[in-house]
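In the laboratory, one determines a bound structure by crystallizing the protein with its ligand and collecting diffraction data. In a computational setting the workflow is compressed into a single prediction: the sequence and the ligand go in, and a structural description comes out. We illustrate the idea with pyridoxal-5'-phosphate.
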Amino acid sequence: MLDGVNEREAVFARAATILAHDERFSGDPVVPPIFQTSLFTFASYRDMEDAFAGRVRRPIYSRGDNPTVRHFEERLAALEGAEAARAFSSGMGAISATVLAFAGAGSRVVAVRHVYPDTYRLFQQLCRRLSISVDYVDGADADAVAAALPGASLLYLESPTSMVFEVQDLERIATLARAAGVVTIIDNSWATPLFQQPLRHGIDLVLHSASKYIGGHSDTVAGIVAGSAALVGRINAETYSYLGAKLSPFEAWLLLRGLRTLPLRMRAHEKSAVTLAERLKGHPQVVAVHHPAFSNHPGRRTLLGFSGLFSFEVGEAIDIAALVDALRYFKLGVSWGGHESLAVPVQASMAQTPKLNAQVAFGVSPRTIRISVGHEDTEDLWADLARALDTARR
Ligand SMILES: *Cc1c(COP(=O)(O)O)cnc(C)c1O
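The predicted complex, in structure-token form:
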């Protein structure tokens, strides 16, 4: 068994070669072409019948299969150590198609609290309408997770969670879920396949909003799910084609382009974000920093590194609107994982319908500000935060 540092270097080394080395298409174009086509024709009746019967695997129609999209799926599967992967037009497309492939009328889903806000809305609205019930548990408490499992069909994890970045003990929870016959799904967008590989720890399916670090350039919305051929096959058979949230070939091409620099980008995000998190922790106007680097929960063991997204809470002496308005490099904006630094004050989202508001439901402090640390110079970013904190003192 490798120790943490060696394991991390082994994952990066493998990923670097997978991503920089490409021999997929004949004629050896160093950048593969975009198959911008809706359909593929057949040379003969026999060819068409073989494809329809599944005797030959080949693309028929781009809602089902497209070579550029498949290339992206195979890359992601290789990075996650999965047999198969399926790409979608958004992270939510991947999440909804996956949840609905494994839950139906009368089934019960167990989810960790502090899931991504639109995942929460999916559970509260569409799932309820389809008579799928969802119970939320404190994912940091593996005993509480175990207690909720009997009778559930699905356990939905996100480690670390959205907005407060709480971690879960994936190995322990995967063992408990397997014993209870419950399928496990994790949203691994925060960590990327470089900083956490949940399938290796016994989780059944791993999904990503590829709009974040996988794309990495804030120019694409996309999603992906990876796991065993059997489970991904079930998503293909039950929901994928009918819900129709397929990825476009051009966006798959952009994602392949983004992926080539993933190892370089993640090391840079980590270095800068950890520096800023530590400095914020020591700042007199900051009352808490929510970052897995400061956690000693056993769930930290499966994290091989830290990405660039975390949050902090400011004291009552700070005017939050004035703080974010004073920021120059951190732009106000949702999403994260791109080259640019971004900030979201929770207070600004408090007015959204409380019934469907994950921050309200899970008790996130309105004094929380989430930041995504981009690729600007770390000292410039720190100067920006320090000056804004100064300006915003009431
Ligand atoms: C953004 C995000 C999603 C949703 O992904 P989209 O690509 O925006 O649909 C899911 N999970 C997490 C943790 C996210 O941050």
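The domain at 4-260 is CATH 3.40.640.10 (Aspartate Aminotransferase; domain 2). Keep in mind that any predicted model is a hypothesis to be tested, not a measurement.
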